[in-house]
Write a structure and sequence with these properties.
This protein is α/β, with parallel strands linked by helices. It has 16 helices and nine strands.
Length: 354
């Protein structure tokens, strides 16, 4: 167990509450291990009809990601601690994705990186006006992991590619409009929703009753604010080469495309190329576990990459927000540079056995 997450059974509910407010509930290895153990045990437990994931009441953020400082410190050495974290976290992601019963995640607040992996693979995800979603990893030389290669390409059009490469943020109802969340409701209704969930008997049909309860509180989702740019997103981000994406944005006459091109140029060129291939291969993956094996191969190597260590220095440690990427331009990142992140790991491949 971990002091940073509360795991308990409440009637037919399996409750998982993040309790690490000092770090915006960012995940660490003990938290992931505790959640993995619980989810694995609850899968075949007939007394558990539903998992409910939230964060400590009265604290900010749902989950801001993973322990980036630890990953960088470990990556600067032998990376064993970072790889242990990825191995545990990715097995947790897979256990959530495969869970045979409903999972409700209340993503009320900042939901980034690891927090996305904790929530997006479940059946029901409720956003509020306080929700801020992003996969900002290309800005620190990491990559949009925790199953990003699986769920991002399966959003509408090329929305996931845009979100992954630029690190764009979605807020409030836009999170549901993009299908990252399945429902949207005002945060002021959460206490009333919680009371109904706690009082409900889910034994007769958890999914049906959960849908009925959510229908009492959730609001219709308006068209996303990003829809005004959907045609540009789908046209410009459809290419298999990052250089072509950037050229398409440059060729577009609109201010929005110009801004996105500038954003893309500020990201780690190597990581942009790695992330784009990750999404294309993830879209073609036959199973979620295949995707997570691919992401583990990337993560195994990425934590020791020059760009990740430089990105953490610039954004998190020194906070000068002026990373010096190596190479500095997309066109200088070779196919061989990208290929090495996807090479098999042999005996070190990710497995999903208990």
């Amino acid at each position: 167990m971990s002091a940073d997450v509360s795991i308990r059974q409440q009637g037919g509910l399996g409750r998982i509450t993040l309790t690490r407010p000092s770090a915006l509930h960012a995940l660490n290895t003990p938290m992931c291990a505790a959640i993995l153990e619980a989810v694995t045990g609850w899968a075949d437990d007939p007394s558990i009809q539903l998992i409910w994931i939230d964060h400590q009441e009265g604290t900010r953020g749902f989950c801001a990601g993973g322990d980036i400082r630890m990953l960088a410190t470990s990556g600067a050495g032998d990376a064993s601690e970072a790889r242990d974290f990825f191995r545990t976290e990715y097995r947790m992601n897979a256990a959530l994705e495969a869970f045979p019963k409903p999972i409700l995640a209340l993503i009320d607040g900042v939901t980034m990186g690891g927090g996305v992996g904790l929530s997006v693979h479940g059946s029901h995800r409720v956003a509020t006006e306080r929700t801020v979603f992003a996969m900002p990893e290309t800005g620190i030389g990491l990559f949009p992991d925790v199953g990003g290669g699986w769920f991002l390409p399966r959003l509408g059009g090329e929305t996931g590619t845009w979100l992954a490469l630029t690190g764009a943020r979605l807020k409030g109802a836009d999170v549901a409009a993009a299908r990252v969340a399945t429902h949207y409701m005002p945060s002021e209704l959460i206490p009333a929703l919680a009371k109904q969930l706690e009082a409900a008997d889910f034994s007769a049909g958890a999914a049906e009753l959960l849908n009925e309860i959510l229908a009492r509180f959730t609001h219709a989702v308006p068209a996303g604010s990003f829809e005004a740019h959907r045609a540009t997103i789908d046209r410009c981000f459809a290419f298999a080469r990052a250089e072509y994406i950037l050229a398409a944005l440059d060729a577009d006459a609109g201010d929005w495309a110009r801004t996105e091109a500038a954003t893309l140029r500020a990201k780690s060129p190597e990581t942009v190329k790695v992330a784009l291939r990750q999404l294309r291969e993830g879209r073609a993956a036959e199973t979620f576990e295949d995707n997570m094996r691919m992401e583990f191969r990337i993560g195994w190597r990425k934590v020791q990459s020059v760009d990740f260590l430089e990105g953490v220095r610039a954004v998190i440690i020194d906070k000068d927000n002026a990373p010096v990427w190596t190479p500095a331009r997309l066109e200088d990142v070779t196919e061989a540079d990208v290929d090495r992140y996807f090479a098999p790991l042999g005996a070190d491949e990710l497995t999903f056995a208990p």
